[in-house]
Amino acid sequence: MNDSTPFLPVIASRDLDIYNADRRATVPAVAGIAATTPALNPRALDVLDQIENAKRNVPAKVGAFLDHLGSLISEHRDADAVLDFALNALAKAPTECPVHSWCKETGDHHDHSGRTTWAACEDAYGNPVLSAGLIDWGQGVKVGLLDLDLTPGEARGKLAELRTHLDRIEQLISLAEQGATNSATGAEAGR
Predict the structure, then answer these.
(1) Quick one: 36 exposed, middle or buried, by C-beta within 10 A (0-12, 13-18, 19+)?
(2) Which of 39, 141, 164, 175 is the right S-S partner for 11, CB 3.0 to 4.6 Å?
(3) pLDDT surpasses 60 at 5
């Protein structure tokens, strides 16, 4: 402020200069903003100070949340109402599943589904193969495997069948390698 600018009360000055109320640019009081912008009450100022102090050592997302709370307080001029609103919203936030630790559903739900895993390779079309996951749709925990909903025991049986099948595939690969070696050896002998 310069010498020709009228003196602003601390609250109005702080409101306009530090917190930039209503996203207005900081201007001298002679422009009339201080007279038309209601001052923040002492409780709101105290909460805004606490928010600024709290932002010093928090992750960026928490800082962004605190900034948003500060802007709501500056906009609505009522720290208690904004904080009550925020606390109510947090209380209604979805909670983790109380039934299964592996369930990825949140909030009130009856059907449970968990993480899904796939083989590291893809089919010829780029789609994942051999997906498996946990589900509980009211008839006990099942393992979703091969488009079937299997009990853990049934899933272990299918897994044993798959291991046997993979061993057979490995035998086929060995035969193919032998055939390639025999073909190469035969071609050299024919020279």
Answers:
(1) exposed
(2) 39
(3) no
Q: 134: closest CA among 97, 161, 186?
A: 97
Question: What's the pLDDT tens digit per position in 23-67?
Answer: 444 444 444 444 455 677 777 787 888 888 888 888 888 888 888
pTM exceeds cut of 0.70 = no
CA atoms within 13 A on the CB side of 10: 3
| Residue ranges of E strands in 9-141 | 112-117, 132-136
- 12 contacts: CB under 8 Å, gap ≥ 6: 29, 34, 37, 39
d(CA 26, CA 7): 15
CA 82 to chain centre: 24
The pLDDT tens digits of the residues spanning 115-128 come to 889 888 888 998 88
**CA dist., res. 26 & res. 17, Å (int):** 6
CB 19 within 8 A of CB 74: yes
Q: What are phi and psi of 117, to 5 degrees?
A: -125, 150
Contact 74/21 with Cβ under 8 angstroms?
A: yes
